[in-house]
Amino acid sequence: MQNKKHVQGSFGVDLLSRRGAILLIAVTIAICGLDFVPAAFAEDEVAGLTELLNQDPNNVDLLKQRAALLRLEQRHSESLGDLDRARLLRPDDPQIGLLRAQTLSALRRDQDAEVELEIFLRSESGRARVFALAERAHIGARAGRSGPAIADFNAAIAIEPALDLYLARGQLQESTGQTGAAVAGYQNAISRLGRVPSLTNALIRLQIAQGELQSALDVIDAQLARAPIKTLWLVRRAEVLAAMGEPAQAKTDLGQALAEANRVLENKVTGLHLLSRAKVLIAMGLTQEAREDLEGCVAVAPGFVDCRLLLRQL
User: Fold this and answer.
1) Helix (H) or strand (E) holding 171
2) Residues 81-132: pLDDT tens digits?
3) Among 63, 150, 201, 275, which is 20 to 30 Å from 288 by CA?
4) Where would I find the H helices in 194-230?
């Protein structure tokens, strides 16, 4: 989680506003999972949940909510403590098993996590199966069981065609040499979710690796037609054109990319815009100029990790 900005109004001074904020957390976790809860939000709300639990120590719903947020904070032992207490109070609640599985998986206690997931999946038929299947898929991938892991990702995607699931399955397929299946998966994801940059970039990367340069170029051209800022798509296009033996056109595209980057920076200097121009300069072989932009990016946006990482590579 990258967003550490304080969420304004997440807790008011009175109990009613605090309960409202906690209800929002519960709904967000139930619908979207923990990845959609800002880390600062979790950090602030744990204290509020603790206050409520001091007044109502046997409230299982509050225990589950705090356990989920403690996991987000990587306070796994405390999370398990809340869940064990919740299970004693409500032994037949299946969500407790799912939450325990997710925390156990975070602790790399994979066998224990899989026991909880198996019990949950045998009894549940709703949308919550997505989270259980995804967690079991991640565990299987870690253990080198790629076949069952991909099958779990497939089952989860059949219920909920989510971006993270498509990307995780595609990365696993790529890592096991199933390039054709990964390409088909990314194409299916694009058809259902639209031309999300992470999907199109993954597809282009594989098409280039397979030598399907014209197909990659077609995907890039489609992105260029839609993108309000075309800088990095022009860089990708230049990369493909160079591989196709068109160095003059590749050079022209890089020139256009640099002009676009300069135009954007004239309007507003941000870390992201400096990073984009640095990538253009690197593609043009202008390493020193790229370094200056990356150093400027670090100065403007000290928390922007991508700038620091690229700077270290130069």
Assistant:
1) helix 163-175
2) 999 999 999 999 999 999 999 999 999 999 999 999 999 999 888 888 999 9
3) 201
4) 197-209, 213-226
Please name which of 132, 180, 170, 167 lies closest in space to residue 152, comparing C-alpha atoms.
132
pTM value is 0.74
Closest CA to 298 of 281, 312, 283, 284: 312
Tens of pLDDT, residues 148-206? 999 999 999 999 999 999 999 999 999 999 999 999 999 999 999 998 989 999 999 99
Determine the residue type at 307. C
Mean pLDDT of the chain: 86
CA distance linking residue 22 with residue 251, whole number of Å = 54
For residue 139 the two structure tokens come to 């565990």
8 Å CB contact between 221 and 204: no
Nearest Cα to Cα of residue 42 among 81, 79, 91, 85: 79
Closest to 184 measured CA to CA, from 145, 157, 159: 157
Q: How far apart are CA 103 and CA 63, in angstroms?
A: 14
- Neighbouring CB atoms inside 10 A of 205's CB total 15
Please give the torsion angle defined by the CA atoms of residues 233, 256, 214 and 157, in that order, rounded to the nearest 10 degrees: 10
Nearest CA to 259 out of 240, 238, 234 is that of 234
Up-side HSE of residue 231: CA atoms within 13 Å toward CB? Answer: 20
- Give which of 203, 200, 242 is closest to 223, Cα–Cα: 200
Task: Retrieve residue 55's tokens.
Answer: 């007044």
Query: What confidence tier does 306 reach under pLDDT thresholds 50, 70, 90?
Result: very high
Per the CB < 8 A criterion, the answer to whether 132 and 124 are in contact is yes
Structure tokens at 42: 């979790």
